[in-house]
Each structure stands twice: as C-alpha cells, then as structure tokens.
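Standup notes
- DV: blocked on the single-chain target, sequence here:
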Amino acid sequence: MSWTDVEARFVMQGLPDGEVSVRAHSSAFDQQARKTVPLTGADAEVNLRMALVVSKKPPRPVSLFGKKLANMTPELQTVYDLDSLTGVLIQEPGVNHLRLRIGDLSPGDRSWMVGGKEIKNLPEMVAELLRIDAIAPLGDPNEGCHGSIRVAYVYRGVARTKTQRLKLTKEDITELKSQLRERIP
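- DV (later): unblocked, structure below
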C-alpha cells in the first residue's frame, strides 16, 4: 500500500516478479483504477486512469453516532478492496467519532465484532450494543458491560484489527433504540 505525492505519483519497492495487480482509488472512494502488470526484476512504469465508481446497487447508509454506516455487500467489498463480507462498513466516520474513544476511523474501515460476537450487519451490531450496555459493570471483560463495550475494527488496507472499549452516552442508547424500532436495513 502506498500514497501518491501531489502529482499523483507513487513508488513501490520490493515487489515480487510475476503478475502484480495494481489498484488505486481516491480518498473518497468515488474514483478507482485497476491494472495487472508483469514484473520481471526491473523497474516498471504504470500509468493508471481513474474512473468514476458507479454503483449498480448503491447502499442505503444509516447514520449512527454521527457516522454513516452500511451493511457489507459484494459491491462494497470490491469498491473498498476489502477481504471479507462480514461486519458493518464505515462509509463516513463523521466529524465527532473520536468522542466514542474508539480511535481514528476512515472510510472503508469496518466493525466486525461487538463483545465476543462476530457481527454480520447493522441490526446485529445495534442489538449487541444494546444487549451488552444492559449488563451491570464488572461483566465479562471479553464482552464488556455498561460503560465499556468491546468493539473490534478492521482498518482498510492495513490487515490489522483494533479492539477498543466503546462508552455510550444516554443519547447514544436512545439513538440505538430508535434505529432498532425503525428496523434498519
């Protein structure tokens, strides 16, 4: 993984010989390019032309805690270059997500575990957050309890998981209950 400079150039070193798939996307994931390049031990120059990402079936994002979230789909998995269809995709982390004390999030990151349960979609995530928040303090440390809910995230492109303790406010709980009543997608 590499970032471009101001002129949209990048250098990657130490790649193996053979066919290498080069993928690029804009920071907003609204443009992307892909190309397979044969490498034979010498430097290779690759020109990519970015194209708009047009969703055949755009997700219906749900606003929760100021973030825009979506259920994972095969199309989103391709657009964001993700390795799994499980979890809930963060399309936009929002300006105030740091108040949740779960670290810095970016578009394309995904939450995949709440407490000790792997979540598959938004309804499961909301139900688990509410269930665990109802547990009296000093609950199972691998799951959490009121004031300290264990949540695991996968950071896009980094192939690592970060586990944090989510602390919900009364307003957050009200928002979760509202989402559950509205039968989020």
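- Follow-up: The helical segments are 74-79, 122-133, 170-181.
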